[in-house]
């Protein structure tokens, strides 16, 4: 088993006034050669955007981009003509593929939006851009792990990679396990709220643990907690 511990306090940070952002991996002006990616996981940004502000239209290609609002609503528009609002409890994915431009704006003037944006390298380059969005109610993942992103699970949003994202809302003392879906993958466990012990390592709010060369995880909630598991290939192909 190989592990890498990323403490919340060690993340990259930038406050632009309208945007307060923390980077688990090198991004923008934050560069840490020890934190470029975890396997196919390239970006995990923890963003707070002020009311009425956001990211103007900008291009992407050859990246699977997952957005998870934690509080508030995010307005999405892209070059295909799609216009959507991504709300708390939604999970959105955009396969940028051969190229797409989009904007992401706080849909409200009077309150912040808090979100996680996660980038995963795709399985194949230059696919036709694709969009998916679904709602996942927190009561459906009480004391269990709920798959929200998967390559072939009709219950989750579709990702063009052998990757699986799971969310869990746990009561204090709850314990469970996680079995990897594919041999050779690793798991990046990110604590959204509370305190969780994963394979013997204690994690607090916004701490993360990358684990590879394993088949299963042991998970215990030390407090009421919310956990995100990101399972990705550890070998990069077609990047």
- Rg is 17 Å
CATH topology name of the largest domain: Jelly Rolls
Shape: globular
Strand content: over 45%
CATH architecture of the largest domain: Sandwich
CATH superfamily of the largest domain: Jelly Rolls
Q: What is the H/E order?
A: EEEEEEEEEEEEEEEEEEEEEE
Q: Estimate the mean pLDDT confidence.
A: 96
Could you walk me through the main structural features you see in this protein, from its secondary elements to its overall organization?
With 239 residues, this protein is mainly β. It folds into 2 domains: 12-126, Jelly Rolls; 138-233, Jelly Rolls, CATH 2.60.120.10. The protein has no helices and 22 strands. The chain has strands at residues 2-6, 12-15, 19-23, 41-49, 54-60, 64-71, 73-78, 83-87, 90-95, 100-106, 113-120, 130-135, 145-150, 157-158, 164-170, 175-179, 185-193, 196-198, 201-203, 208-212, 216-221, 225-233. The protein has a 7-stranded mixed β-sheet, with no helix packed on it. A 7-stranded antiparallel β-sheet has the order 2-3-4-11-6-9-12, with no helix packed on it. The protein has a 4-stranded antiparallel β-sheet with strand order 5-10-7-8, with no helix packed on it. The two termini are 25 Å apart. 38% of the residues are buried. The model has no long low-confidence stretch (mean pLDDT 96).
Q: Can you lay out the helices and strands and say which pair or pack?
A:
Blueprint lengths: L1 E5 L5 E4 L3 E5 L17 E9 L4 E7 L3 E8 L1 E6 L4 E5 L2 E6 L4 E7 L6 E8 L9 E6 L9 E6 L6 E2 L5 E7 L4 E5 L5 E9 L2 E3 L2 E3 L4 E5 L3 E6 L3 E9 L6
Parallel strand pairs: 13-14
Antiparallel strand pairs: 1-20, 2-3, 3-4, 4-11, 5-10, 6-9, 6-11, 7-8, 7-10, 9-12, 13-15, 15-22, 16-21, 17-20, 17-22, 18-19, 18-21
